[in-house]
Specification:
Largest sheet: 5 strands, mixed
Number of strands: 12
Strand content: 5-15%
CATH class of the largest domain: Alpha Beta
Low-confidence stretches: none
Helix content: 40-55%
CATH architecture of the largest domain: 3-Layer(aba) Sandwich
Structural class: alpha/beta
Mean pLDDT: 91
Strand order of the largest sheet: 6-12-11-8-9
């Protein structure tokens, strides 16, 4: 897969990774001597979403152009919760935060390494940091004297989310969430002091918190720092935030409570409407401007073939899950949606990692345990309705025992592997 010979500033503009920033001239990114940045994610769940993925791909773009990344997982900030405009977050237990941290670190590393491999970019020193490591020993009085005295209440109350929370009709805000911006600002200050990091990358909704770090570095070090934000990805058709972490999120994890299978992940992109594809390709794929134009031109010749959606789905799935699993998802889509194709026991091995797996056993147990049915009662209804088949054969007996491996299917497009 080739990319254009663009400078960093040109590629950021082309892909849409440009919102509010502190630079006088964005071309300064191309000649900046200090090519280090940090980007952070809080462990509010055990998986990132495709909303986070857009910001992570922006970070990867910086890395491709020679920047060294410091990727922060917020073990400290995750214990408080990034304030929402609508109300307080529920506090996570310390055990949950620790579990989420490990999962997110692994995801960040996987996505970034896949990106570098797919773009033939030399591997870089990927430094993962956790703000709990420096906050766990900070004395509260020292923090107030050092950080708290550097901010005025007027300055903090001017923040939009604070105004929304404490204004008329607002839900109010706890002191803990009110202080969140000071904690994140200190992160930037700490990374500047320890590593010389003078650039923070963020989503547009985090720009205010980034400015807290810039302010702190100026006040305490009399030094300059910058922030660069990328727009939140908005669904061009619905106008809603893309890949929200609430509701029907599309997760980067393929297993666990907050997960989207590799197959369903690929299908999500494959089912995007024509009006969204070009916009999403720029954000989420590695295709160059010329490649995108060629793909779209070929798509227009035969829209029913969905060439643009296939190209989009292939590239994003390769970045998130790797080339092999993307290829398996493509093969599974082509075979299992072909009415003439009959799944075989070998497909349990061919599509491993693409679908969830379940052990052999009584069909009611298999359906309930796998999540294809909400209960054994629901499983009976599905069998009675003729919605369940195993390796192409419809199951009509609720007492049948599944004794061979293969593909169990529910309805038109829900599959699990029987191993």
């Amino acid at each position: 897969m080739t990319t254009e010979n663009l400078t960093l500033s040109e590629e950021l503009e082309f892909r849409g990774f440009k919102a509010e920033n502190t630079l006088n001239d964005i071309k300064d990114l191309d000649t900046r001597e200090n090519k280090q940045f940090y980007w952070g994610a809080d462990p509010s769940a055990d998986s990132l979403t495709i909303g986070n993925l857009a910001a992570l791909l922006m970070c990867a773009c910086f890395v491709k152009h020679g920047y060294k990344p410091y990727l922060l997982v917020g073990g400290a900030t995750g214990q408080i919760g990034d304030p929402k405009e609508t109300g307080e977050r529920d506090l996570k237990s310390l055990e949950e935060v620790e579990h989420n941290k490990k999962c997110i670190k692994s995801q960040i590393e996987r996505v970034l390494n896949n990106y570098l491999e797919l773009t033939n970019t030399a591997s870089t020193d990927l430094t993962m940091v956790d703000n709990y490591d420096w906050f766990k020993n900070i004395n509260y009085l020292d923090f107030l004297r050092t950080v708290g005295k550097a901010f005025s209440m007027t300055q903090l109350l001017d923040r939009k989310f604070i105004q929304n929370r404490i204004g008329e009709g607002g839900s109010g805000i706890s002191y803990a969430e009110f202080s969140y911006t000071l904690i994140q600002g200190y992160d930037f200050y700490h990374l500047y002091k320890e590593y010389g990091v003078a650039l923070q990358l963020c989503g547009a909704d985090q720009f205010g918190n980034c400015s807290s770090g810039i302010h702190l570095i100026k006040r305490l070090e009399n030094a300059e720092a910058d922030a660069w934000s990328t727009p939140l990805v908005i669904d061009p058709v619905s106008g809603r935030k893309f890949g929200k972490s609430e509701g029907n999120a599309i997760w980067l994890a393929s297993e666990g409570p907050n997960s989207t299978t590799v197959f369903d992940f690929y299908q999500f992109w494959l089912n995007q409407p024509d009006d969204s594809v070009e916009y999403l390709m720029k954000f989420y794929t590695l295709y160059s401007k010329e490649e995108i134009e060629t793909i779209l031109a070929n798509h227009q010749k035969a829209p029913e073939s969905r060439l643009a959606q296939k190209a989009l789905a292939k590239s994003v799935t390769e970045i998130v899950h790797g080339v092999e699993k993307a290829a398996a998802a493509i093969e599974a889509t082509e075979k299992l949606f072909d009415r003439s194709y009959i799944p075989t026991p070998e497909d349990a091995d061919n599509f491993k990692g693409v679908f969830p797996e379940e052990k052999k056993g009584p069909i009611l147990d298999v359906l309930a345990n796998s999540g294809l049915a909400t209960s054994k009662t629901d499983a009976r209804k599905l069998i009675k309705a003729g919605a369940i088949s195993m390796n192409g054969e419809k199951i009509t007996d609720e007492n049948v025992e599944i004794t061979e491996k293969g593909i169990l299917k529910k309805g038109k497009n829900k599959f699990i592997i029987i191993k």
